[in-house]
Design brief:
- By secondary structure, the chain is of the alpha+beta class.
- Helices cover 38% and strands 18% of the residues.
- It is built from 23 helices and 24 strands.
- The chain has a six-stranded antiparallel beta sheet with strand order 12-17-13-14-15-16, covered by helices on one side. It has a five-stranded mixed beta sheet with strand order 1-2-5-6-9. Strands 22-21-18-23-24 form a five-stranded mixed beta sheet, with helices on both faces.
- Strand 19 and strand 20 form a beta hairpin.
- Helix 13 packs across helix 14.
- The longest helix has 22 residues.
- The relative contact order is 0.04.
Length: 649
């Protein structure tokens, strides 16, 4: 059990809450009694109960499968579990479903950004630096974090983030992510931030325009002596007006009409907005490049006519110009942008309806779902033959083989491949998003937030430093920072990947940088499930995240670096194994085992020099110089030399 203070309540969480029995009717009509273990049993100050946490996507699937167990209520916009609530009510407790929709992703992202500062117990900002930062923030309310970071106040970024967690300066962590400093506004305190929002973000109020024409109908708004009045009643002889203070004004209809004619009573009309409507933007984005080019040519043609200066020698017919001008003015009145009216949208013209009858389309879709998209992996012509027979028996027009194959190909993609060949075969068709929304996996907001660990067998043969005997190919372990793409640590050994390689690369990271990544991403190798490896991460409060099995893209950060290390460094060494890809071309004279001259210690020395110096400099500069001196002595193109003797010359 552990405690957490939240909103003034002291919450007590039990890691292993007791099981409860859910009694409900399944979708097939059977009565079920299911033993269920909720995620948490929470004891609050004034209440207690079970809480189950699930993603919104999972809840929708469960609601379709078991509507009597899970359903979404439109009244309170919450997910409910009636059998769980019934069980809890008999003990005076509650049962609540929590979904990821309740998570404030911006706040979570900011808390992860500041996690190291919150966990540290020895953060101190020098008094002079703190006062300098406070003076800047007080004199410039709403200064962005980017501007404050660039100010020459003698403060480091750590000082600013420390003042934020110590609440000496205020930033709304719920509003904008700290990883985007140009959007983050900083204030002296929360009250100053609230006043700033009232001053800057207050919506503008449009003053109504006065029209001399009055429509004498119930509900119309008029102005009389500078005050707005509503017409409450229009009778045969009287007109009743309503004021803001709920007072009623009765006037003879003849007197009211006379005041209107004199201009003392006028109509209040709100001016039309001239802003471009959302629909016009949608039409603009839907237009093809050809439509855009055509519309621009049309606008250039009618622009002189719109300005009242028609050209003398016009080659385009006057009727066409009048047509384009009318479309422009109509769109200007309807959408707030006349250019939209000049777009042809040829891609949506014509008859887009399906030519086949509805019965044919329905039976064709049924055969595709139930006969083609199955693990039997039938060929299209076999399914089409069965479809034709079924259509003849039902008296329905049979689709041609060409129409059937087009319909199948229209459905080609992840779902179809998954149904026919399984999820692993369908993985290559799955949509891959580098970054789409706040919930999409990212590569971190800062350095040392996410680190990737992986192993690779280098393409080079090594020899013993004492006997010169061939020892085979070594294994390299890389720890890569996902945010900066820097190599944090490199470890080289003859041993196959094990927990020792993982611990050593983390040890080297601490030795070089004095810290570990906050999150360590690994694959499903046995070495990453080691008790020693997990104990080390738990001791230093590092989070281990595993890549999904059979999804190689999640390891692209390391995998791409492995290829870079081979092409830029290893493949330039004597004894590299590139030639072994074509086994029939390998002879004794070119066999990498006979060409090997590198030892493990010497290779590791220069691999570190490449990783921490050459690769790092090239990565930051974005260039690859034609010649570089040795990082140790400055001699020659050392990384392109073939043997260690060239390096040491």
């Amino acid at each position: 059990m552990y405690q957490l203070e939240h909103d003034g309540d002291v919450l007590e969480f039990y890691d292993q809450p007791p099981q409860i029995k859910l009694d409900y009717q399944a979708s097939n009509g059977c009565r079920l009694g299911v033993l269920h273990t909720p995620d948490f049993f929470v004891i609050r100050t004034n209440s207690a109960g079970w809480e189950e946490c699930k993603t919104e996507q999972d809840l929708k699937k469960l609601a379709e499968k078991n509507p009597n167990r899970y359903f979404y209520s439109q009244e309170d916009n919450q997910w409910h579990c009636p059998p769980g609530e019934d069980y809890a009510n008999q003990f005076g407790l509650y049962y609540r479903i929590r979904s990821d929709r309740e998570i404030n992703w911006v706040l979570q992202r900011n808390l992860q950004f500041l996690e190291d500062y919150y966990r540290s117990e020895s953060l101190v900002v020098e008094e002079a630096i703190a006062q300098s930062l406070l003076a800047v923030v007080s004199s410039q309310p709403g200064i962005t974090l980017a501007e404050l970071l660039n100010r020459s106040t003698g403060a480091k970024s750590d000082d600013i983030y420390t003042l934020i967690i110590q609440e000496q300066i205020y930033i709304d962590l719920n509003a904008t992510p700290l990883a985007e400093p140009e959007r983050c506004l900083i204030f002296r305190d929360e009250q100053t931030a609230s006043a700033y929002r009232l001053m800057v973000e207050q919506p503008s109020v449009s003053l109504p325009a006065i029209s001399p024409v009055v429509n004498i109908v119930t509900g119309a708004t008029v102005s009389w002596d500078g005050k707005g009045l509503n017409i409450i009643h229009v009778g045969e002889t009287e007109v009743i007006l309503g004021a803001e203070n709920s007072q009623l004004i009765e006037l003879k209809k003849a007197i009211f009409e006379n005041l209107v004619r004199q201009g003392k009573i006028t109509s209040l009309q709100t001016p039309e907005k001239t802003a471009i409507s959302t629909e016009s933007w949608q039409r603009f984005y839907q237009a093809s490049p050809e439509d855009q080019a055509e519309a621009l040519e049309r606008y250039k043609t009618i622009e002189p006519y719109l300005n009242g200066h028609p050209p003398e020698n016009e080659t385009i017919p006057a009727r066409t110009i009048r047509h384009w001008k009318a479309k422009y003015l109509t769109a200007l009145q309807k959408y707030g942008c006349g250019y939209i009216g000049l777009l042809s949208h040829r891609s949506v013209k014509g008859n887009r309806q399906r030519k086949l009858p509805e019965d044919t389309l329905a039976i064709m879709e049924k055969f595709i779902l139930e006969d083609y998209e199955t693990l039997k992996q039938k060929r299209m012509w076999e399914v089409h033959a069965a479809l034709v027979r079924a259509c003849e028996e039902s008296g329905v027009i049979a689709p041609s083989y060409k129409a059937f194959t087009k319909e199948v190909q229209r459905r080609t993609g992840y779902e179809q491949t998954k149904k026919r060949q399984g999820r692993r075969a369908a993985y290559q068709h799955e949509s891959f998003y580098w970054e789409l929304a706040i919930t999409t996996p990212r590569h971190g907001d800062r350095a040392f937030e996410i680190g990737h660990i992986d192993h690779t067998e280098l393409d080079v043969e090594l020899v013993c430093s004492d006997t010169g005997r061939n020892l085979g190919r070594p294994w390299a372990t890389f720890l890569v920072d996902a945010y900066s793409r820097r190599l944090l640590a490199v470890y080289l050994t003859f041993d196959s990947p094990s927990y020792r390689s993982c611990l050593m690369v983390l040890r080297i990271c601490v030795k070089r940088h004095g810290r570990l990544p906050q999150i360590v991403v690994v694959d499903n190798g046995a070495e990453f499930h080691s008790v020693y490896f997990e104990t080390l991460l738990a001791t230093f409060e590092c989070t281990k995240k595993q890549r999904p099995p059979a999804k190689a893209r999640f390891g692209s950060v390391c995998e791409r670096l492995f290829g870079t290390s081979n092409t830029q460094f290893v493949h330039n060494l004597l004894g590299n194994t590139q030639i072994t890809r074509n086994v029939r071309q390998v002879t004794k004279s070119v066999n990498p085992k006979n060409q090997a001259v590198w030892t493990l210690g010497l290779l590791y020395e220069y691999l570190c020099a490449w990783a921490y110096e050459v690769y790092d400099n090239r990565r930051t500069s974005g260039t690859f110089p034609e010649s570089e001196g040795c990082v140790c002595c400055g001699h020659g193109n050392w990384w392109q030399s073939g043997s260690p003797h060239d390096f040491l010359r």
